[in-house]
Design a protein that fits this description.
- This protein has 2 domains: about 5-95; about 100-305, no CATH class.
- It contains 8 helices and 9 strands.
- The protein has helices at about 10-45, 50-95, 110-115, 215-220, 230-235, 240-250, 290-300, 305, and strands spanning about 100, 125-135, 140-155, 160-175, 185-190, 210, 225, 255-260, 265-270.
- The protein has a 9-stranded antiparallel beta sheet.
- α1 packs antiparallel against α2 (about 50-95).
- The chain is globular.
- The two termini are about 35 Å apart.
- Keywords: Membrane, Transmembrane, Transmembrane helix.
- This is DUF3137 domain-containing protein.
- Pfam families: DUF3137.
Length: about 325
């Protein structure tokens, strides 16, 4: 477990960035203050019956505030990137020297679709903060993803575009050291309750013959398993592996979903917040600040030993 308070190098980085954060925070507060005052003046003078001067003064204040925020935007972007490259990177290196973060990297849409875990192909897709490295013999990587599809809705005023989430969270991928002959999917049983709109990408026809009843009653109660190769699926989902997946699932905030395809295992973790983002209005010197980010890093890294992926029961074909 990475301990921020025990990492002198990380503390020094945080102290340096805190100076920049304080400057940006102060400037942003000033910008928002002028915007707020501008709106308040415009509303107040309009209520008092002098709307034109109110609008002029209010517009001046809002525009001036907007200019302040615009001028600080480049510094804000640089600060946020420095936080990821320096702070998050240092935390990763403290855990394992092989770990790196690429803030602008990610798991791109073709691979996301190729996991076969989702019913919709995204119309709008964003990925960032690719973390990659090795845990023992096993290469792994994970990234934040927000995938959406759009729906055109007819209303009395015309057509309205609605955006709906396909997935928001982290996708984790690891080398399974085997080229799979088939595709095996492990999905939450309560699709409508826990996972919302999570359905498998129907690239092959699912029917009763694709459903596997496994030896673990608890596993079958939690998940539904489909596979195009039932013999291979049982080799993958040994009693020990099912027990490890159940433990992993219990330690996750939301029910996970997995696919075994090509030579990789994918795990989807739905989450409701963005990780690895630099705070602006909270001090970087608070040791509790990074706890959630550090917890995610440790959790993802521990997947490899938790699922015993370093034990090579097969060689690649």
């Amino acid at each position: 477990m990475v301990k921020i308070e025990n990492n002198v190098a990380l503390q020094n980085i945080l102290a340096t960035l805190e100076i920049e954060r304080t400057k940006i925070s102060s400037t942003q507060k000033k910008g928002y203050l002028f915007i707020g005052l501008g709106i308040a003046v415009a509303i107040g003078l309009s209520i008092w019956g002098i709307p034109v001067p109110g609008i002029i003064l209010g517009l001046f204040g809002a525009v001036y505030g907007g200019i302040i925020l615009y001028k600080i935007s480049d510094e804000l972007s640089a600060y946020k990137e420095a936080f990821k490259i320096q702070v998050i990177a240092a935390a990763l290196k403290s855990l394992d020297n092989s770990l790196i973060i690429e803030p602008k990297g990610g798991i791109y849409a073709p691979e996301f679709v190729g996991t076969q875990l989702f019913s919709e192909e995204p119309d709008r897709y964003h990925t960032e903060d690719l973390v990659s490295g090795h845990a023992g013999k096993t290469r792994f990587y994970f990234a934040e993803i927000h995938a959406e599809y759009k729906r055109e809705v007819q209303t009395k005023n015309g057509t309205r575009t609605e955006w709906n989430d396909i997935f928001k969270g982290i996708i984790f991928a690891a080398d399974f050291n085997k080229n799979f002959n088939g595709v095996t999917l492990v999905k939450p049983k309560d699709l409508f309750g826990t996972m919302g709109a999570w359905f498998s990408k129907n690239l092959f026809s699912f029917s009763d013959k694709n459903v596997i009843n496994l030896e673990s009653l608890e596993f079958d109660k939690t998940f539904i398993t489909h596979s195009t190769d039932q013999v291979e699926a049982r080799y993958i989902l040994t009693p020990a592996m099912m027990e490890r997946i159940l433990t992993l699932n219990k330690n996750s905030r939301n029910t996970v979903s997995l696919s075994f395809i090509d030579s990789r295992m994918y795990i989807a973790f739905p989450l409701n917040r963005n990780y690895f983002e630099a705070p602006v209005f909270k001090s970087l010197l608070n040791p509790e600040l990074l706890n959630q980010d550090i917890a995610v890093i440790n959790f993802m890294y521990d997947i490899v030993p938790e699922l015993d992926l370093n034990t090579r029961i097969w060689g690649k074909n």
